[in-house]
Amino acid sequence: MAVLSIALLLCLVFVAPWAICAARVHRRFTIRTQNVARVCNTQTIVTVNGRYPGPTLRVHEGDNLVIDVMNKGPYNITLHWHGVKQIRSAWADGPGYITQCPITPGTKYTYNFTITGQEGTMWWHAHMTYLRATVNGALIILPRHGKTYPFPKPHAEFPIILGEWWNANVENVLADAIRRGGVPNDSDAYTINSQPGDFFPCSANDTTRFMVERGKTYLLRIISCAMIHASFFKIAQHKMTVVAVDALYTKPYETDVLVIQPGNTMDVLITAGQESGRYYIGTRVYNSQPQGFEFLNTTTTAILEYHDSTNTSAPVLPDFPAFNDTPTAFKFSTELRSLNASVPQTVDEEMFITEGLALASCPNNSCAVINGGRPLGSMNNISFVLPEISILQAYYYGIDGVYTTDFPDNPPLVFNYTGAVPMGLWQPDFGTRVKVLKFNSSVQIVLQNTGILTIQNHPIHLHGHDFYVVGQGFGNYNSQTDPANFNLVDPQLLNTVGVPTGGWAVIRFIANNPGVWLMHCHFESHSELGFETVFITENGPGNSESLPPPPRDLPKC
Ligand SMILES: *[C@@H]1O[C@H](CO)[C@@H](O)[C@H](O)[C@H]1NC(C)=O
Ligand SMILES: *[C@@H]1O[C@H](CO)[C@@H](O)[C@H](O)[C@H]1NC(C)=O
Ligand SMILES: *[C@@H]1O[C@H](CO)[C@@H](O)[C@H](O)[C@H]1NC(C)=O
Ligand SMILES: *[C@@H]1O[C@H](CO)[C@@H](O)[C@H](O)[C@H]1NC(C)=O
Ligand SMILES: *[C@@H]1O[C@H](CO)[C@@H](O)[C@H](O)[C@H]1NC(C)=O
Ligand SMILES: *[C@@H]1O[C@H](CO)[C@@H](O)[C@H](O)[C@H]1NC(C)=O
Ligand SMILES: *[C@@H]1O[C@H](CO)[C@@H](O)[C@H](O)[C@H]1NC(C)=O
Ligand SMILES: *[C@@H]1O[C@H](CO)[C@@H](O)[C@H](O)[C@H]1NC(C)=O
Ligand SMILES: *[C@@H]1O[C@H](CO)[C@@H](O)[C@H](O)[C@H]1NC(C)=O
Ligand SMILES: *[C@@H]1O[C@H](CO)[C@@H](O)[C@H](O)[C@H]1NC(C)=O
Ligand SMILES: *[C@@H]1O[C@H](CO)[C@@H](O)[C@H](O)[C@H]1NC(C)=O
Ligand SMILES: [Cu+2]
């Protein structure tokens, strides 16, 4: 903290306004357990610095972040800085057994990285097992000193974290599912800044409130940390203007509903322009599965309260789209546009990846939870198996036998991906298979959802890069006709795309960040079930295009 203020002072006083004005931001995160009460239950949960949600990090573009993580909790853990590209700092990215071994109980690791050319709302979260349910917080990147937002300065800002709460130890929830061979139990409540709101018992007194002044404009920095559901988000009688998604500016987009995938962040302006009073901010599930899968169908609320309100009646509740309103979800995600796009116009690496659930057989019905089998996730029919040491270490030191470089560019079989898939195709292969990308190559990936077990929207998150979503649609992607409709002018740049239920999305990015990068479904249970894969981006020709050696304190395993 002291370092930060000295650096800022120097910058303000001695340095010309156009100079680079970066600071070093040093924080200490202590992982420990804490008793927290929510939804009629007191639960011992894993936290950062005893807080839930964890501390908000507010930094500037260009800052060097040094975060000492002491693990005083009972579990192995790693932290991920969601949305930070980690340019030449893959060692700080965080997914367990991908870029690092876990920080074991009683040990520490210092994440050291610089935010370069990125600003907006990001977040940080645990990236192992189910710990991100409670270990998460906002990472807000303000423009460099002297620079402004590309929209009018808001009067104030509110971080809003959408999360999920279990009346159980989340590590037991996951372990229980693995033992049974099933999917983890659903959460007991969805939350806004850790509170479920007025429609859940035992929480009404603590409902999150945001106080506003009539006539002023506010920036909501909304983060979906939800574990397994996409959300509709509304504010009664208030329109919202989306100005950024995933810390990437959009052309201002006015809407009365947001559709937020787990992993997405949204920067949204609202003006307190209504009659003084109290209005519910509400979220509900967007359930994209047609079959009767169970989900929590209640409404989670916070309150937008005008500070001079004397109205004591119940806040006004927004109207929600139907739980399965896929047209609204599709409209929202296809209407977003980048503010300043620079889309790769040519493609060097073309991949077609089928992704979705899968089903492993269960010998003697030992785990017959769904259709006689154990649900899994897969990409190109491979259910990813985590190695025992990190892939980045194995790659850097040339350790054999940890992974293979034969992740296929295409699925092994052509079938009616989103149709009624014959059960003979539901069993996946297993492996730790990665795809190697040449430095600076332009990559296009068709992400094709499958109908194995169910059709469903899947939020696909890529580490180390942002990508343009140049096309989206329903059914099977058609390589003859669909490219004609690509938007190569101003498509939205994202780090997490909700691939439409029973459909596909096409992404493009330049592989210009050397390192090892996970791509996975941000439904936590799906990625735990093998719904992930890994890219290795090779070094470029120069030193400044190569991955530096690991920090000395990198955890061992
Ligand atoms: C962080 O990493 C940079 C190099 O990328 C190094 O110069 C610096 O000393 C490191 N800081 C700490 C506190 O380890
Ligand atoms: C999961 O749900 C089942 C059925 O309701 C329950 O018996 C079990 O205890 C739950 N598991 C955990 C870890 O809470
Ligand atoms: C809410 O607050 C009221 C008044 O302080 C108190 O009587 C009531 O017990 C509280 N309810 C809960 C669930 O904490
Ligand atoms: C104010 O109170 C009235 C009832 O007295 C209610 O109908 C109205 O919805 C309230 N408005 C707000 C904004 O809270
Ligand atoms: C939520 O689900 C319950 C039980 O499945 C059902 O009775 C209720 O009508 C549903 N509520 C809504 C708002 O759909
Ligand atoms: C980004 O787009 C806005 C609006 O189209 C424009 O005013 C601005 O100059 C652009 N910025 C850059 C860096 O291209
Ligand atoms: C399945 O059950 C049979 C008969 O009880 C037994 O012989 C066989 O070993 C079992 N297979 C497995 C994989 O458990
Ligand atoms: C694929 O499956 C869908 C849904 O069952 C069906 O409507 C479509 O006709 C099938 N397409 C082909 C080429 O068989
Ligand atoms: C996946 O691979 C398994 C094992 O090789 C095979 O049985 C299955 O048919 C394949 N399924 C698909 C969709 O490719
Ligand atoms: C990477 O690609 C960019 C744009 O095509 C080019 O300007 C740059 O020189 C390339 N760098 C390397 C190392 O190939
Ligand atoms: C924690 O991580 C270490 C190092 O990878 C590993 O040896 C150990 O088995 C892990 N513990 C658990 C409970 O997974
Ligand atoms: Cu998924």
Uncertain ranges: 1-19
- What's the β-strand tally? 32
Number of helices: 5
| Cross-sheet strand order for the largest sheet | 10-9-12-17-14-15
Number of domains: 3
Give short descriptive properties of this protein.
557 residues; Immunoglobulin-like; globular; disordered N terminus; binds 2-acetamido-2-deoxy-beta-D-glucopyranose; binds copper (II) ion
Tell me what the structure shows.
By secondary structure, the chain is mainly β. It has 3 domains: 4-142, Sandwich (Immunoglobulin-like); 156-335, Cupredoxins -  blue copper proteins (Immunoglobulin-like, Sandwich); 349-545, Cupredoxins -  blue copper proteins (Immunoglobulin-like), CATH 2.60.40.420. It contains 5 helices and 32 strands. It has helices at residues 2-14, 170-180, 326-335, 391-397, 524-528; strands at 24-38, 41-48, 57-60, 64-71, 79-82, 108-114, 120-126, 136-142, 156-165, 189-192, 209-212, 217-224, 230-235, 240-245, 248-255, 258-260, 265-271, 278-286, 300-306, 349-361, 373-379, 382-384, 429-431, 434-437, 441-449, 458-462, 467-474, 493-494, 496-499, 503-511, 515-521, 532-537. The longest helix has 13 residues, at 2-14. The two termini are 32 Å apart. Residues 1-19 have low confidence and may be disordered. The chain binds 2-acetamido-2-deoxy-beta-D-glucopyranose (NAG) (11 copies) and copper (II) ion. One 2-acetamido-2-deoxy-beta-D-glucopyranose (NAG) binds at residues 275, 277-279, 311, 313, 315-316.
